[in-house]
Design goal:
6-stranded mixed β-sheet; about 25% strand; alpha/beta; 7 helices
Length: about 270
């Protein structure tokens, strides 16, 4: 019995050691890229098929959330509490038309949270970023890259020099955002993706704002070679995007006015 207790104790110690060693690094199963000291969660809102991303420094517990959705704010804040991280910044890749941002509700729940969005979006927020700006959380950082074309205020966030990129609607998995409203431009979107995203390392993991087919992530190399829209010439791409004939976004009349004021609802 003493021997059994000792063996159980050793096994428990091994489990704790393994948990400790993995708690401070994030490995993307898509391509096994490891980011040391990163807490990372990809979250999903099913009505608008929106991905929200929570990133935190494992040591300082400082956290940032990308593209939160109003309807899932309670879930996201509860997750922060469970993980023991302190959410400092809630940022958007652009002024969304298909859902109401959760930044306003998060600020109401916790006045220490600051909202951010691109200055070019003309939406309200606590702080604004432009191309080349840096959003820091602990030892990690997100580089802001202007990627307009879906809207004139779109940005992508590049993590730690190119480990991951959060592309919003500029680049989707095997697709891209529409360009027929909110000052969209197929020519500008094509240039943005090719100059600001496709120049990142091939193994950089691509995390979009939406997916409608069950995909979760891709890589820069995959999208450079397999994206059926963005592997075309610019002229072919513009012709395609100008003739998609997409329906009017279901939530735009509610979402866009609210998102211009940080999603704050009276």
């Amino acid at each position: 019995e003493t021997c059994n207790r000792t063996q159980r104790s050793h096994r428990a110690a091994e489990r704790r050691t393994r948990a400790s060693s993995t708690a401070h690094s994030y490995t993307d199963k898509h391509n096994m890229t490891t980011t040391e000291g990163l807490i990372f969660r990809q979250l999903f809102e099913k009505v608008s098929s929106t991905y929200t991303y929570l990133l935190a420094d494992a040591e300082t517990k400082e956290a940032v959330i990308i593209d939160p959705v109003h309807e899932t704010v309670e879930r996201d804040l509860a997750l922060c509490k469970e993980l023991g991280v302190s959410l400092k910044q809630a940022i958007n890749t652009h002024c969304h038309a298909d859902h109401v941002t959760g930044t306003g509700a998060m600020k109401k729940a916790d006045h220490s949270i600051k909202s951010g969005i691109a200055k070019a979006s003309t939406a309200k927020a606590d702080f604004f970023f432009e191309h080349g700006d840096i959003v820091k959380f602990g030892k990690h950082q997100l580089e802001v890259r202007a990627t307009p074309g879906h809207t004139d205020g779109c940005v992508s966030f590049v993590l730690d020099g190119g480990k991951m990129v959060f592309t919003g609607d500029a680049l989707l998995i095997r697709g891209c955002g529409r360009t027929d409203f909110q000052a969209g431009s197929p020519d500008l979107l094509y240039e943005s993706v090719h100059s600001q995203i496709f120049t990142l390392p091939d193994d950089c993991v691509v995390y979009p704002a939406h997916d409608y087919k069950g995909h979760m992530s891709s890589t820069v190399k995959e999208e450079k070679t397999l994206n059926p829209r963005l592997t075309k010439t610019k002229a072919e791409f513009a012709d395609l995007m100008n003739n998609l004939g997409l329906p009017y976004p279901a939530q735009i009349d509610r979402a866009l006015p609210l998102n211009l004021v940080c999603g704050i609802q009276d």
